[in-house]
Here is the input.
Amino acid sequence: MLTSRQIYIYLAPALLFTALFFIFPFVFLLYVSMQEWNGIGAMNFVAFDNFRYLLGDPVFKTAMINTVLWILAGILLHTPLGLLMALLLFRKPRGWKLFRVLFFLPNVISTTALAFLWYFVLHVSLGLVNNLFKTVGLESWAHPWLSDPGTAVFANMIPFVLYIGFTMVIFLTQMTTISPDLYEAAEIDGATNIQKDRYITIPMVKSAIAINVIFNTAFCLKMFEYPLLMTGGGPADSSINLSLYIYREMITANRYGISMSAGLMTILMGAAAMLLVFGALGLTERRGKA
Here is the structure.
C-alpha cells in the first residue's frame, strides 16, 4: 500500500504542470479581466466594467448563443450519432474494422484542411452542393449557405459530424468491457438486438455517455477554425462564437481586458457544463442503486 509521501511524489508532476499551465494563467486572466489594457502600455484598473461591456454588447450575445448552439449540437446530435454507430459496429458486421478506421480518420486530419474543404463544398457558385442541385434540376434549392445569416452558423457545424469517429471509439471501448454472458442470457430469453441494446448495452455505457458529452462540450467551447476560415464569423457577425470573439478583441481590437473577460466567462460556461454532466451522472447512479 502506498504511503502518503509516495502518493504526493506521484502526484507532484501533475500538480506542477497544472499550476504552471492552468492555475497561473487563470490568475493572470482574472487579473487582466479587470483592467483596461491594449497589450503594450500600462494597465488601468476598471473593476467590472469589462463584464458590463460584454453584457451590453450584441456581438458577444450572438457569440454566446452560437456557442450554446454548438454545444447543443455536440450533445444532442453528435453523441447520439456516435452511440448509434458504435452499436452498429459492436455487432461486428462485415468490414467493421475498416469502417472503424474510416470513421476515426478525420480526427487525425488537419482542421484547417477540412475547413477549407467544406468552404468549397458549400461555396455559393463553385460549391459541390449547389452544383449538384443544379445538375439534378433543383436549382431553387441552391443557396448561399455560408453568406446567409440564417444558415451560416449551421453550415459551420456540418464538418463537426466528421469527428463522430472519436465519440464512437469511446463507446466501443466501453462496450468491450460488458460481459458476453449478459448477451447470451438475453438470447436464451429471446431478446432481439434492439432489446439487447436498450436493456444491456446502453445502460452499461452511461459513463461513456458522460465522457463524450464532456469531450464534445469542450470541443465546442474551443471551436475556432471553422467559424474563422469558413465564414470569418460573418455575415454581420451571425456565425461568430466565443473563441472567435476572444480572438478578435485581443488581436484585432487590442482590447485585452475585454478579451480576458470573455475568456473567463467561457471558462465558467465550461465549468457549469461539467457540473451539470457530473450531477446528472451522479443522480442517475443513485437512482440505479435505489
Summary: The first strand starts at residue 35 and ends at 36. Residues 148 and 235 are 7 Å apart (CA to CA). The longest helix spans residues 256-289. Strands lie at 35-36, 44-45.
